[in-house]
Design brief:
It is a single chain. This protein is an alpha/beta fold and about 300 residues long. It has two domains: about 190 residues, NAD(P)-binding Rossmann-like Domain (Rossmann fold, 3-Layer(aba) Sandwich); about 90 residues, UDP-galactose 4-epimerase, domain 1. The chain contains ten helices and 14 strands. Helix 1 crosses helix 7 and helix 6 packs parallel to helix 8.
């Protein structure tokens, strides 16, 4: 068994990953500044370092004795990127370079979170890893920067890296009260509490939703791939199946046994109409696919909510 560092381990995805690693008998060290992560998400068996993933001395200390790093710490908010461009850049790109720099001393493998935001607006095209990236947001640009610096980490400094382009991740522990949270957690809370659900535009925006347990399975498989000497690369984490935002709202209402109370609002500026990923390359490289059907994932998400 091994010790792994999970940056952002108090967050939504990071805490689920930490639980899975512990269940396999590994030791887990969490590095988190708790700006969005919650102490209650962390299993008490984890060793916790509170601080900034862009702090070189702290990251070096966090990696001492570790077999590898899962780098998930980020500010995953388009709005925050607009409001605090420089600050989010530091959290998203500078922190990633800091992790790569610390990992190169012992050439530790790093599995890091990228994003479907690197693709920008593909129109009717399905997002494949070989398409030209064209991010439209500071967050997407920073995640693309992470991928470029990962190539430097690997080819110049010998650090094994694997980036995972997350599509729309959902599941328990995703904060439904945050305006920056995923649409499913926000919709689920509002449906469960009998509130109206805001639909921006006509609601026909298509999204590829992937359940958090499937994301964790991809993360673990990615680390195993690097530890076995596999190539450094970047892969989609998605289902390859889309659902409209409108149909999603109706599905959640149906599962809760009440009609959807929808309010149509103005479209969001720059909202992408279609975001659908191709999971074929991840299936080929990691021998893994998302297993959780959307209805099952929605049921688990609803069941996890405590309505105030």
């Amino acid at each position: 068994m091994a010790l792994y560092l999970v940056t952002g381990g108090a967050g939504f995805i990071g805490s689920h990953l930490s639980d899975a690693l512990l269940a396999e008998g590994h030791e887990v060290r969490v590095l988190d500044d708790f700006s969005t992560g919650k102490p209650g998400n962390i299993d008490p068996r984890c060793a916790v370092l509170r601080g900034d993933a862009a702090d070189p001395a702290l990251v070096r200390r966090a990696l001492e004795g570790a077999a590898g790093c899962f780098h998930l710490a980020a500010i995953a908010s388009v709005a925050r990127g607009n409001e605090d461009w420089l600050g989010t850049h530091r959290a998203n790109l500078t922190a990633t370079i800091t992790v790569f720099d610390a990992a190169r001393a012992h050439r530790l493998p790093v599995v890091y979170a990228s994003s479907a935001a690197i693709y920008g607006n593909l129109g009717e095209q399905v997002a494949r890893e070989d398409l030209l990236p064209a991010p439209l947001t500071a967050y997407g640009a920073d995640k693309l920067g992470c991928e470029l610096h990962a190539r430097v980490a690997t080819h110049v400094h010998g650090v094994p890296t694997l980036g995972l382009r997350f599509f729309n991740v959902y599941g328990p522990r995703q904060d439904p009260h945050s305006p920056y949270s995923g649409v499913i957690s926000i919709f689920a809370r509002r449906v469960a509490s009998g509130e109206t659900v805001a639909i921006h535009g006509d609601g026909n925006q298509l999204r590829d939703f992937v359940y958090v347990a499937d994301v964790v399975a991809h993360l673990r498989a990615a680390m195993g791939h690097l530890e076995a000497g596999g190539e450094s690369t970047v892969l989609n984490v998605c289902t390859g199946m889309g659902i409209s935002v409108l149909d999603l709202a109706h599905a959640l209402a149906d599962l809760h046994g009440r009609p959807a109370r929808l309010v149509h609002e103005a479209p969001r500026q720059g909202d992408i109409r279609r975001s659908l990923g191709d999971p074929a390359r991840a299936r080929g490289v990691l021998n893994i696919t998302a297993q959780t059907r959307l209805r099952e994932g929605l049921e688990r998400t609803l069941a996890s909510l405590v309505v105030a």
